[in-house]
């Protein structure tokens, strides 16, 4: 039997191989003439529409970046480590999407700032700062989409390739709502109705999930991203479908296995067992592992290991691990205050 330390090492190495091997962002396009990654992308000065569209992207990017930075500063100031990590990831995601500079647009374009007297009297709260990020993110994505379509219609093969690469480098799983009541659905949903449309959506998402995860070190991240979107879409569109609990389980699995989002994973595992206490999936065990190994919340892990023993009876290997880990945690003094 593997110890908890061995399991942690195996999980970490597997994740490292998976992420390093198959989830690398596309390289910046190379010029056909020199074979080097481009550092600048010139805009045709004789084409006002192209100049305007590229300028819109840069203005939207700067505004979006400023809004993320403001939210990150807020979380750092209040010591919210988890949401600060999200903001850091989203900022890095934006910075890595575009590796070149525009040539031929107004580089001095900056987002409008509030008057000094307003800045002194108005201290934005978390929800306002988060909504600013979501709004500016949407504007940035729309601006990039607009220029991509322009280049497609103009049959500009190279510039189209550059913008499509930007879009591929911008990862949706590294964007957040920052408000838990928006990030994940309510715990009060009830899976009580059968919808053929929801069942079809579930089958499509599950097929993508399974096709993308046959060999972890060779995972198809495009399929996993699409599966994640479809499972989430199912829950939004059919919040009382009998498929919502299992969809939540697979959402958690994707976040945990492929995108290193262990906190989001435990929130989705919790939805799965709350919506369906008898769900045929090891939701409590998986949540316990995340709290134990990745989130360093041993008390929660202990409670969930015990809950898994009681409520998830069909997983013998999990039970052996739960019993071993409970003994180890008890030796470390975890749970002693409850006795």
List the topology elements.
Blueprint: H1 4-22, E1 40-42, H2 48-78, H3 81-97, E2 101-103, H4 116-121, H5 126-153, H6 157-169, H7 180-183, H8 196-212, H9 221-237, H10 244-258, H11 262-275, H12 283-294, H13 298-311, H14 316-331
Parallel strand pairs: 1-2
Q: What gyration radius follows from the Cα positions, in whole Å?
A: 23 Å
Report the order of strands and helices: HEHHEHHHHHHHHHHH
* Spatial sequence of strands, sheet with the most strands: 1-2
Secondary structural class: mainly alpha
Helix content: 55-70%
Distance between the termini: 28 Å
Overall shape: elongated
Structure commentary:
This protein is mostly helical and 339 residues long. It has 14 helices and two strands, in the order αβααβααααααααααα. It has helices at 4-22, 48-78, 81-97, 116-121, 126-153, 157-169, 180-183, 196-212, 221-237, 244-258, 262-275, 283-294, 298-311, 316-331, and strands at 40-42, 101-103. It has a two-stranded parallel ribbon with strand order 1-2. Helix 2 runs antiparallel to helix 5 and helix 8 (196-212) runs antiparallel to helix 9 (221-237). The protein is elongated and about 70 Å long. The protein starts with a helix and ends in an 8-residue tail after the last helix. Mean pLDDT is 88; it is low at 1-21 and 109-120.
